[in-house]
């Protein structure tokens, strides 16, 4: 998958910007605050329909404007498609492929897979399990369209069950039969999600380990381990066993919405013993493994978005990363940096056809 052209209108700080991209390496250089990361965010929108920075759609409309649009031409193996994302202030977001709107947002996910490596990745190690669950869900959703549907259904049903538990507590009533109505849909969608998560992580782990050895050359070993209540018990039994606890807490305390990924080095959590360099190497290995597995499962080459990596990694590590990506034929790469000369020194040596845009 290759993004040939990109046009931005009223997107964040860009009134109007147009780009024609190389099928290989594309770099955006300029001072801090000029909007380099915003361009990567627009590319992320094309992939998954939302900001990687967590901004709401309306907050991405340029100040004092009424809408933003992102237009792109995408080259497939045997065809060329147009993508357009529009967000008016007073209406819902619209995503169109070849001038036809998607019925559901979930139908677009996986069309243009992407992987982002950014300074925010460190949150995957330091934050709570929620950020790692979202990361896992994002990876699998780009390879399996039915997964996202099951996830949406599961989350809706859990919200409804939790609302009923809170209603019971507020009104000092209890109706076990009404609560059990949710058991079957939660169990069905939750078990499917569990099985797909377990299978995906089992494939991901050895790829992460391989990339870590290449990047770090370290003697230590790393692992990605899937943690879930369902590894020890069926969902039906979980709901039954935790019923009284859920009644007291007024929310569903057990289930795949509590899953986590454990990032370990020599069988200890990497956030406890890993140096900054080891943690960075691990995160890059994780993202490259994500790219490799998406490519394997979908036969599509994801676009790679590298945000501000020169300021977070030393030049030799960046060179090693880009060379590795180039060797693995990972496809189109987009990079942001503040120093043109530094960027040119690295990317021109690796790929003479790279394009550098001054922002």
UniProtKB/TrEMBL annotation:
Keyword DNA-binding attributed: yes
Gene3D superfamilies: P-loop containing nucleotide triphosphate hydrolases, RecF/RecN/SMC, N-terminal domain
Source species, domain of life: Bacteria
The keyword Cytoplasm is annotated on this UniProt entry: yes
Subcellular location: Cytoplasm
Main subcellular location: cytoplasm
InterPro entries reported for this sequence: AAA+_ATPase (IPR003593), DNA-binding_RecF (IPR001238), DNA-binding_RecF_CS (IPR018078), P-loop_NTPase (IPR027417), RecF/RecN/SMC_N (IPR003395), RecF_2 (IPR042174)
SMART domains recorded: AAA (SM00382)
Keywords for the protein's UniProt record, in alphabetical order: ATP-binding, Cytoplasm, DNA damage, DNA repair, DNA replication, DNA-binding, Nucleotide-binding, SOS response
Entry binding sites for ATP: 30-37
Stretches assigned to the AAA+ ATPase domain: 22-357
Pfam families: SMC_N (PF02463)
Family of the protein in this entry: Belongs to the RecF family.
Function: The RecF protein is involved in DNA metabolism; it is required for DNA replication and normal SOS inducibility. RecF binds preferentially to single-stranded, linear DNA. It also seems to bind ATP.
Name assigned to this protein: DNA replication and repair protein RecF
Lineage, highest ranks first: Bacteria, Pseudomonadati, Bacteroidota, Flavobacteriia, Flavobacteriales
Originating gene: recF
